[in-house]
Each structure stands twice: as structure tokens, then as C-alpha cells.
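Page 42, continued from yesterday. The earlier attempt failed because a stray header line got pasted into the input along with the sequence. Redoing it now with the clean sequence only.
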Amino acid sequence: MCYVLDPELLLVNLFHVDKKPLTIKRLKEVRQEIETEIPSLFVDISMNSVCFAIERRPEMFRWSGERICMAENTEDMYSEDKLNKYFNWKIPSNIRSNFLKIIATFL
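This time it went through. C-alpha cells are written below.
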């Protein structure tokens, strides 16, 4: 079975590990690593999906030129407790630990 990871889940976990702005190129690199390590996981980083995630969560993300940034004063939203409570529970448990391990070591 294949699981599709939406950009919102990818972004919140990347910003949890590293607060630096991200480019679409960087998201593609991360996607490649994740999909190589976890073949049953598809990471959706199409431009439409990324734009929708940013538009849907303006309290968390914003554009700065061609980079995706954390919105102002949102550091507490990226705590591990909040990530697990509001976001990571959506990822199937058999995929979650490998996904989080890759994110932690990739940046």
C-alpha cells in the first residue's frame, strides 16, 4: 500500500529540525531521499500542493521571494508535542519512524 505525504506534513517536520527557509529545489532533494528510503511513501511537492499548504496555513508558513519560511513567532507551533498531536498522527506508524529519522538526518 502506498501513502501520500502532503507538503504540510513535510514542511512542519522540516521546520521542526531546521528553521532555515526552504526552496522548492531543497524540497525535491528531501523528497528523493525519502522516496528512495521508503518506497511505499510518495511525497507530494507539486507546486499546486505546496502553494495550497502555505495558503491554508498562513499562521505557520509564508513565502519570502522563492523561499518558504516559517511565519513570524511560530516556534512553539513546531514543538515535538504539537507536531505529534496535530500532524504526525496522520502518518501510518509503520512509515512514521523511518520518515522522521530521515528528516532528522537529512538537514
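Notes: The longest strand covers residues 61-64.
Reminder to self: strip header lines before submitting.
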